[in-house]
Amino acid sequence: MSVPQPWPPKSVATPEDLVVALHATDEGGADLVQLLTPEGERVRDERFDSYAADVGVAELQGLYRDMVLVRRFDREANALQRQGQLGIWVPLLGQEAAQIGAGRALAPMDMAFPSYREHGVAWCRGIDPTELLGIFRGTDQGGWDSRATRFHLYTIVIGNQCLNATGYAMGQKFESKVGDGPDTEATMCFFGDGATSQGDVHEGFVWAAVYDAPVVFYCQNNQWAISEPTERQTRVPLYKRAQGYGFPGIRVDGNDVLACLAVSRWALEECRTGNGPVLVEAFTYRMDAHTTSDDPTRYRLAGELELWKLKDPIERVRVHLVRSLGVEQGYFDEVAAESDALAERFRRFCMEMPAPAPDRMFSQVYAEESPLVAAQREAYLAYHASFEGA
Amino acid sequence: MATLTLAKAINEGLRSAMERDPKVLVMGEDVGKLGGVFRVTDGLQKDFGEQRVLDTPLAESGIIGTAVGLAIRGFRPVCEIQFDGFVFPGYDQIVSQLAKLHFRSQGKVPVPVVVRIPFGGGIGAVEHHSESPEALFAHVPGLKVVACSNAVDAYWMIQQAIASDDPVIFFEPKRRYWEKAELDHDATPPPLHSAQVVRPGSTLTLVGYGAVLKTCLEAATAAAEDGNDLEVIDLRTLSPLDLEPVVASVRRTGRLVVVAEAPSETSVASEVAARVQEECFLSLEAPVLRVTGFDTPYPPSKCEDDYIPDLDRVLDAVDRSLAW
After folding, report:
1. Residue A164 and residue B57: Cβ atoms within 8 Å?
2. Does the beta-carbon distance from B61 to A199 stay under 8 Å?
3. Is there a contact between B165 and A147 if contact means CB atoms under 8 Å apart?
């Protein structure tokens, strides 16, 4: 059993309390990489500062904008589900920094394998948010070109993608894309704390280690696998598992976009140069429900969310931009206006999406069509047509 | 012409496919130095290297899951599952990813993976080494499933399966691995997804696949001595089924006996029976009969001669059909 925690918190936490709380979630907390505190203060990190050295005012503004826009369409999608326009939505609220930091670290030729919550990484891969809607409206099961964008389709079965990503990374290695050449590549695999209990994640770690595959295993530990807290998945901090497989594991403040960017860049660089695989645990929090079908009030206290709101990934960047970098209000107004426009376009697109025709279900089951499927399509369409004009 | 065993025929087929296309990989447990427990991949690692013939860690989900990733990257992996009963840890990856990616991506992501599975009993093995799980794959949309019965087909079918852009589950009749046939390397093989009439006849249609096909041919020889002229059809492709030759045959003979080693309930044999009665209802002179393994787990090996459909059980069904 876990050590009893003081709960609920006695009063609103101070910034110091928050940092302590973040670090105290387990004994490995002191290893947490953080470059921007929840209060928006830039802290130095000998190991990772160099990986964020090129992030000036404009670049940090860019990361801020990414997070605001992604949060905005995420909230819009949630609302669209509530209004019956989507069958389900999988919110990313709270995980914007973890996803934008990693997503912006990826180079164009790198490959990413998402689970089903990586809307922020999709954004970074150039996928328009409207392309995500088909899955959740039920008009499609994919929706984007995973080869052109180098962002694999969403994987819904927990952990499956860790093996697929590892195989892909093995292929990169077999094609000599690892080392000191000009065209090196890496793969990044996204999964959550719950997935770490899956055999496929274990096997992915084993395979990647045995074949020195250039894959970054990027675990967003958002503390909850639907209703089960991380302690139902593990006895040790997740990043420490890497040691047992023989590769480095590191924990980063998943609500710190700068740290996530720096650590991801380092991890990808390690992989591209032949030092992969690497495990990154982005320590974050799922601020909303698992999906729109879930009800977190049944299993967690509202106070926990309130505590994490004080560690919000976007607010700390805004504070830093204002206080330390002198960014004027006009910039934030521009981003807000842009996010409103995006939300409006997103909403309109969603509501105008046509339902697929009945023959959609027979489409592309095989590369070389099965005569059985062809016969069933023909028979069903004839049956369907028999009602026309009736 | 060359005389070779079924195991060697697959070996030569793999070699030929690997020579033709550098993206073809062989991966599995013990497929490298050892050449596989049945020696089907013998010598391939020596000639193609460790990046083309991968001795993988011992985990079937890992074999299939990484093969899927390699296929996404543009490779054409051929996975070996050591024994039929060991495929189930990989079943999730086969059903959830391998079978569905083409549909999920609407054709943008083909996954040309071949999963080779030695299947069936008759080798006196312990549990999990003698099963016939083909229906569990034939039931999954997105997969193609084939079973070879002899060395000549094995040589061609493995190459055709590798060339296919669809995932193919490739069943090999393990108790026939050491049976020889004459192979003409210059012949033109029939399409992969085609059933073949292997012995023409007029009295009754006998359909089988995999290891029991030989039993079917022996039954036809025995029946001929009694003046019964059986037509024997090797199904070869289990998904999609190619029933045109079967339907054409049954319309002539009016009688069908389907032979398979797998349990009968919800099986490939049952699907053949159902579809043939739909297509041949007015031609049938007798109900379609099935001769199969029993609806039990595969038994201890000292019982397997009773479990596997043998000559007598096939002939018994032939007699029952003819007596109808």
Report:
1. no
2. yes
3. no
Q: Token pair for residue A212?
A: 């020195």
Kindly state whether A168 is in contact with chain B, defined as any CB-CB distance less than 8 angstroms: yes
- Inter-chain contact B240–A371, Cβ cutoff 8 Å? yes
Residue B62: closest CA among chain A residues belongs to which residue? A203
Indicate whether B138 belongs to any domain.
yes
Is B190 within the bounds of a domain?
A: no
B84 plus B115 within the same structural domain: yes
Give first-to-last CA distance, chain A, whole Å.
66
Over residues B241-269, the mean pLDDT reads: 98
- Which range of residues forms the domain containing residue B215? 196-323
pLDDT recorded at residue A389: 78
Residue B191 included in any domain: no
The closest alpha carbon to A279, from A322, A318, A314, A234, belongs to A234
Q: Is the pLDDT of residue A28 over 80?
A: no
A141 touches B at CB < 8 Å: yes
The domain boundary, picked from B130, B159, B183, lies at B183
Q: Does A95 touch chain B (CB under 8 A)?
A: no
Looking at the 3D structure of chain B, how many domains does it have? 2
Is residue B284 located within the same domain as residue B158? no
Contacts by A327-336, CB closer than 8 A, 24 or more apart: A327/A57, A327/A61, A331/A61, A335/A64, A335/A65, A335/A68, A335/A69, A336/A68
Tens digit of each residue's pLDDT (9 = 90 or more) over A268-290: 999 999 999 999 999 999 999 99
Residue A171 at interface with chain B, using a CB cutoff of 8 Å: yes
Look at phi and psi of residue B39 and say left if phi exceeds 0, alpha if psi is from -120 to 50, else beta: left
CB contact under 8 A, B166 and A203: no
HSE on the CB side for B212, CA within 13 Å?
30
Catalytic residues of A, by residue number, are 286, 290, 299
Asked whether the beta carbons of A176 and B137 are under 8 A apart, the reply is no
pLDDT at A13: 54
Q: Do A207 and B57 lie within an 8 Å CB cutoff?
A: yes
Instruction: State how far residue B273 is from chain A, nearest Cα, in angstroms.
Output: 16
Mean pLDDT of all residues belonging to chain A:
93
Looking at chain A, which residue has its C-alpha nearest residue B89? A199
- The alpha-carbon gap from A372 to the nearest alpha carbon of chain B, in Å, equals 7
User: Between B61, B65, B103, which is nearest A365 by CB?
Assistant: B103
B112 min Cα distance to partner chain A (Å): 9
| Cα(A114)–Cα(A132) distance, integer angstroms | 12
Residue A128 · residue A69 · CB < 8 Å: no
Chain B residues within 8 A of A372 when measuring between CB atoms: 240-241
Can you give the C-alpha Rg of chain A in angstroms? 22
Touching check for A375 and chain B: CB below 8 Å? no
For residue B318, give how far its alpha carbon lies from the nearest alpha carbon of chain A (Å): 29
Angle A30-A31-A34 (CA atoms, 0-180°, nearest 5)?
Answer: 95
Collect all residues with Cβ–Cβ distance below 8 Å to B310 and sequence separation of at least 6: B215
N- to C-terminal Cα distance for chain B?
44
List the structure tokens of A390.
Answer: 């009736």
Domain CATH code at residue B13: 3.40.50.970
CA distance B315 to B306: 15
pLDDT at A50 over 70: yes
